Amino acid sequence: MDNGQYVKPTVAIIITGMCFMIYFGVFKNIIELKWVTTLIKLKWDTTLTKLKLDTETFHSCTGLNCTNFFKSYFWKKTYNSLVFLGDSCMYRLFLTIMRKKGFCKIKKQVNRCSLISYLGKKRCSKWTKPSSTEGPYSYGLTHPFCTDCSGCNSALYNCGEIKIEYISVEYARDVEIQSTTSNTTQEAVSLYFNSNFTNVCVVNSGFHDMVLPALTDRLYVKNVHFYVQHLVQTCQNVIWISTTAVRGDKGFPQNNRRIQLWNRLIKEMLRNKFPKVGFMDFFSISNSTKAHRDNVHLTAAVYKLIANFFT
């Protein structure tokens, strides 16, 4: 047989092998390239997601600029329940709003020592005293399961298509209400909202917190974080109202320097940790001796002004 007959098949085999190696190498590179591209895309998508979470819009307003805040904040949203949570200052705002409504019917109301039944909870077998950085501090400390605030009667009103409610919560963290399912008032309120569909929660704490001698600025922020963390789990929309200014009467633990600091710290904490929570700052429109009835409570005219932002 001619040697040339062996050369041609050999060359063909070599060329075929080289093509296969080149093809396999290119194919492998294509697979690796696609995989790397996929990883890059996944990493980019994750970065975009994180960026979106980190830069989520934070809604806030100050003073008279809050005129349309409530309506614009809930633009294209419908709600049938509005709850105010706070001390006697929030209670007076709530009463002012109810007087403006006029046609509402009361569904339930309780005094300072019946809040636990209002929330549908049962008392725990033994009430435990608070730590030095949580309430209660006065009446509630010597009367277990009662609130410090004497005239803050939690109440629910039916106003036609919307229900408006006030719940007495004076502190960012307190153990006034200790039930079989929760150790703090804040947890009990959150569980109450979970069983009673709630759209909007308007909340504040500050004046009573300043009475606690051991409560530092950092611990106050930590307590508010604890409070809001529970609220956002069961309340669809949360708006934090800044602590208003005080008149500056002597002998009281509250002062405007610290109030402004706390308001700033809470606003920043909410912006960073709970960007979906709204923030309304009423310090400036309350920072006048003429705006006050006493050291912490405002005049009826100022409460009417603030009430206009919610009606």
TrEMBL record:
The chain crosses the membrane at residues 6-26. Keywords: Membrane, Transmembrane, Transmembrane helix. SUPFAM superfamilies: SGNH hydrolase. It comes from Mytilus coruscus (Sea mussel). It comes from the Eukaryota. The lineage of its organism: Eukaryota, Metazoa, Spiralia, Lophotrochozoa, Mollusca. This is SGNH domain-containing protein. InterPro entries: SGNH_hydro_sf (IPR036514).
